Amino acid sequence: MGAILTRPVSICEMKRFVNTSERIWTVKSTNPAHVSCLFDIKRSINQGFIIYNRTFYFGRRRSSVPLRGVFHTGDPSWMITTTLDRLPYSIESFLYTNWNCSCAVVKVLAINRGRIVYYDLRVRNSSVKFNIDLGCKRQFHWFAGLGKLIYTSKCQRILYVEK
């Protein structure tokens, strides 16, 4: 008797994934915006929400947006993000995470941009420097196709040059 194939299940809660002092890089995305070197970095976190900065380059210009992510109490695999003054930004949900919570495939409903949907492959800094989990790469491809590369090793160098 053959195995029944099912959609992968997220084994890591959103709160656990984002509760790190590491940068969380968006490595690949189907986001139509032309950004590069996008990462999130935690500023503070509590039981109900996280405050973080989303930083990216648009051409040669660096931008940083402070965001608030509210964890969903009924489904720990997603959160609603707003600006700090509570303007809707996005709904982000895990489609897949690996066993140690170092990478995730995220479905994003961008409320601030006409409700477009796109997919991200997000990876903690310690994993992006070495080897990105093969399961995360495969699941991103399964959900999103090829996507476009947002992160390259130059992203690490740019951060330290600017300091």
Q: How confident overall, as mean pLDDT?
A: 90
Q: What is the terminal separation in angstroms?
A: 59 Å
Class from secondary-structure proportions:
alpha+beta
Rg value: 15 Å
Number of continuous helical runs: 4
The beta-strand count equals 9
Largest sheet: 8 strands, antiparallel, barrel
What is the beta-strand fraction? 35-45%
Helix content: 10-25%
How many structural domains are formed by the residues?
1
Q: What are the low-pLDDT stretches, counting only 5+ consecutive residues below 50?
A: 1-7
Write the H/E string, N to C: HEEEEEEEEHHEH
Main β-sheet, spatial strand arrangement: 1-2-3-4-5-6-7-8
The shape, in one word, is globular
Write the CATH homologous superfamily: Calycin beta-barrel core domain
State the CATH architecture: Beta Barrel
Say what the CATH topology is. Answer: Lipocalin
Assign the CATH class: Mainly Beta
Provide a concise account of the structure shown.
The chain has 163 residues and is α+β, with helices and mostly antiparallel strands. The longest helix is centred in the last third of the chain and has 11 residues, at 134-144.
Brief descriptors of the model:
single chain; 8-stranded antiparallel β-barrel; 4 helices; alpha+beta; 163 residues; Putative lipocalin lipocalin; Lipocalin; globular; disordered N terminus
